[in-house]
Write a structure and sequence with these properties.
It is a single chain. The chain has 83 residues and is mainly alpha-helical. The chain is 69% helix and 0% strand. It is built from 4 helices and no strands. The chain has helices at 11-24, 28-38, 42-56, 62-78. It is elongated, with a radius of gyration of 17 Å. The two termini are 23 Å apart. The relative contact order is 0.07.
Length: 83
């Protein structure tokens, strides 16, 4: 782990993180590390989409890219805007 720092957030978010960490038997710091490491960046999603298309023998066209972005938007909508 790198140098410790602090993040400002609301008390409600802090309290929720505390509950989530407690339920998992971990700390807020470890919980945040886990959440941040499993969430893909836009660049990582794009790289994986290109790789998946190649493995499936699909040309990664702008139309395929747009379909993928639309799918991610629907996933986020079902997750309440998260991800």
């Amino acid at each position: 782990m790198g140098k410790a720092t602090s993040i400002k957030t609301s008390e409600d978010v802090r309290d929720r993180l505390h509950i989530l960490a407690s339920e998992r038997g971990t700390t807020i710091t470890k919980l945040l590390e886990e959440l941040a490491s499993r969430e893909l960046t836009e660049t990582e999603r794009e790289e994986r989409a290109r790789e998946a298309a190649g493995e499936l023998g699909v040309d990664y066209t702008e139309q395929v890219q747009q379909s993928g972005q639309d799918a991610w938007a629907r996933v986020r909508a079902h997750q309440g805007g998260a991800a």
